[in-house]
Every structure is written in structure tokens, then in C-alpha cells.
Amino acid sequence: MKIKGFLEDISGIKRITKARLEQIKNAPDGPIPEDPIRKIAEAWHPGELSLEVSEVRAAGEGAKLFRFRKPDGTKLPLFLPGQYLVLTAEPDGKPVSRPYSICSSPAEAYREDGFVEICIKKPRKDGFFADWVLRNLKAGDRVFAVIGCGQFTYEPLRDAPRMLGLAGGAGITPFVSMAREIAAGKAEFSLTILYGANSPEELILYPELEALAREAPEKLRVIPVIAETASLDSGSGSDTGPSSEKGGPEAPTGSEAAGDTGDFFFEKGFISAELIRKYLQDSDGNFPDTSLFICGPQAMYRYLGEELAKLSIPKRRIRFEVFGQAKNIAQFDGYPAHAIGKTFRMTVHRGIREDCIPARADESIAVSLERAGIRLETGCRSGECGFCRTKVLEGSFFVCPENDGRRAADRDFNYVHACAAYPLSDLAIRIPIA
Ligand code: FES
Which of 59, 102, 250, 339 is the most buried (most CB within 10 A)? Predict the structure, then answer.
């Protein structure tokens, strides 16, 4: 850059202002012409959509696949394999939103009768919304959804074209979307999935994954890793399947040896460092450049963090999907004992409106708002996306250290992500009018 001199630089602003005023003066009186780029962007990323449930089908023990279409038959928005949608429905007449990984592929969304699918598995606990959806949602119902959120996607500028997926329980869903895209011949990457479950019965969507792997054997491989192998002594059990809300139920992750019951090949134990090393190798015993993509419950991430530390994999080659809200906030370091079991009062300011609602110490601010029927836009429910950013006007709170996505400025000006912040006293907050 050339520095012209103090006075000349200062006077530059005068020239710009003059040119702008000239343009304003000469602008046409009519409406601003449509911006074609904006039109395309809005068509691809239209925000919240009204969708119709077109099909519900069983997907394994305690799990269902839900297929959604646009009621007017128009095209669905763009998304990438591995992304999630935010589903909003109204159990008890109050709007509740939760993120679910999309398990269908973009190739299925953009065809003539395009659709998106999610798979929900009955959670072991904290399953208010998932339980309601599993019990009540049926073909013909309408829901709202934002499609195409999250960063758990293959990016050729960043990731190696050889991918090793580590999935625990419900964490298999984003990999199903990737597998479908591979089988459709649309993906640039190859994928090997180590799929951890307690038993073969818990391997949701496994029969479909097996079928997809047969369609693209050079690019897709799925290896079940079964923790409890007693049930396998009497034969194969590979007829199961679903995945669910991001970060769903607890699932095992650590390997003892391979097993084979008839046509069902599996690894025994958990997804350990030893097992990961085995599948990082190619058939010649070399270690080609590989990206690890990991999706599962919170406990699996802690376990895998320790296992991955034993391997010399560059950090840039390891990607974790966010895992949803913390299951038990009191377990985290720094959580004050005095708050356990308490319920506080939370004053919620929205424009000129003010509501006072109860806020349990063990529930996030976002959950308290939902219970009170107050809408707050949310996405990941993991402190990452910032959709739920909220100003705290008064009171103290605890932020889950594993879900703390606040920026420095948020901390300085007392903003929190409501999905990851928990009241420690009476609170006053300000949220946008939804
Ligand atoms: S919903 Fe994403 S940060 Fe809260």
C-alpha cells in the first residue's frame, strides 16, 4: 500500500463522500433491482421451513426413521453430508427445537421427489422431545425445520480424502448420510467406519450401511465394534438400527479381537488406540494421510481423547461433532455445590415484554425458556453455533466448560449461549423477539 501523506489521505474521505453524494443524486427513482446473488442465496438457505412428514418407518430397536418433504413439492435447501437439521414441533402446545443429524444424502434431497431423513432412537434418559416425537409424529403431520447446520462435513481444502469415522451409538447418523452420498457416486472421499455399540441389537441402521458398502466396496467399509459379545455366541445379530438426537445415548467406545459369527464380522471391545491404528493402515501396512471424524456421546469423546493422544495424528486431522447439551451439569469441575437441587426465578425481557419464570439450576437457560413456552432460536444445543446468544442483565450463572463457545467479547459484555449456561442465582436476561 502506498502512503500518500497525511493531508492527502485525510482529504481522500472528501473525494469519496463527494462521489457517493453524486451517485445518490443520480440514482433512479424506481425500486432497487433484484439482486440475483441474494436470490440464489435465499433459495439455497431459506431459514426455517414448513415440512410435511411423508413417511415414518421402524429403524431398529426403539428407533424410527422420519422422512420429510416440502408440502409444495419445491426443492429442499442445500446441505452437505454430515450436517444436521433443527427440528421444531410443539409438544404440549409449546415450541421445542432439537438438532438431529440428517441421515439422508444431498443426492436424495435434490431429485424430483426430494426428501430429508432423520433417525431418532429412544434415549435412555432426558428424552422429553425425542420420546414425544417417537410416540406422536406420523405421516401427514407438519413440523418446522432449518436444514443444513453444522461443521461436521468433508472439506477438500482441509481434510484428507481418506476418512476414518468413529461412531458411537446414535452418532452413526451423519456417517449414514456420507455413506449414501458415496454409494450415489457423488462423494470425493472414501470412508471406513468403526461403529461402536453395546450389542449387535443396538447397531442402528447397520443393515442399510452394509448394503451401501456392497454398492461401493472400494470407497466404503463398515466395521461394528461390539462391547458385549456374549449374545454373539449363538449367532449373528446384525438386524438393528437407528441414530438420534446429536450426542444421544451412552455407547461404548474401546478392542480386544475380531469376531465372526457366520456372515457378521465385528471387532470385540471398544474403539481403542490399537483398533484405530489397525484401520489407519492400508493393505500394504502403510499409514496414508487420513482424517478422523468422530461422532457419539459425551463419554465417548473423553475416552477417545485419551486413546487418540497415544497416536501421532496431527490435530488438524481430527474432527469432533458437537454432542448436545451436557447430561449432568453438576459433574463438571467448578460447578458450585450450593446450586444443586435449587430452582431460581428468571426474568425474561423481550422488547417491552417482561416474564418471570422458574429456572432450575440443573437445566440450561434454553430449557427453562422452552418449559415456559418462550421461543428462543437454537441450533446445535452444544454452545457452538451461537444461535441462542443471550444477554445476562443480572445474576450469576455457570457455563459448561466442554460447551463454552463464547467469544472474548461475549464474556466481557455478559453474553452467554443459553443452551450451555445454567443459573446459579435469580437471573434477568434479554432475548430477541422470536
Ligand atoms: S444452540 Fe448453538 S450455541 Fe446454543
Answer: 102
Q: Give the pLDDT confidence of 34-53 residue by residue, as tens digits.
A: 888 988 888 788 889 999 99
User: Which structural domain range is residue 363 located in?
Assistant: 330-430
pLDDT of res. 7: 64
For 258-287, what is each residue's pLDDT tens digit? 776 667 889 999 999 999 999 999 888 889
**β-bridge pairing 220-226 and 264-268:** parallel
Inside any domain, residue 22: no
- CA pair distance 47, 67, nearest whole angstrom: 19
Residues 173, 119, single domain; the answer is: no
| 292-310: average pLDDT | 92
The sheet carrying 264-268 orders its strands as 258-261, 264-268, 220-226, 190-197, 162-168, 291-295, 318-320
Any domain includes 15: no
377, 382, 390: residue to mutate for ligand 1 pocket, most atoms within 8 A of CB? 382
Give 350's contacts (C-beta < 8 A, 6+ positions apart). 374, 430, 431, 432, 433
Distance 385 CA to ligand 1 centre (A): 5
Share of the chain above pLDDT 90, in %: 69
Residue 292: pLDDT band (50, 70, 90) is very high
**What's the rounded Cα separation, in Å, for the pair 391 and 421?**
11
Number of residues that make up the chain: 434
What does DSSP say about strands 96-101 and 162-168: parallel, antiparallel, or unpaired? unpaired
Number of domains in the chain: 3
Ligand 1 pocket residues where CB is under 6 Å: 378-381, 383-388, 405, 417, 419
Which of 400, 415, 419, 429 to mutate to test ligand 1, by most ligand atoms within 8 A of the CB atom?
Answer: 419
Amino acid, res. 41: A
- The grid cell for 244 is 438420534
Residue 340's pLDDT band, with cuts at 50, 70 and 90, is very high
What's the pLDDT tens digit per position in 224-256? 999 976 444 433 333 222 233 554 333 444 455
> Scanning the structure block, which residue is given the C-alpha cell 437445566?
363
Residue 403 neighbours by CB distance under 10 Å:
25
- DSSP, res 395: S
Residue 64 lies in a domain: yes
Q: How far is the CA of 88 from the centre of ligand 1 (A)?
A: 14
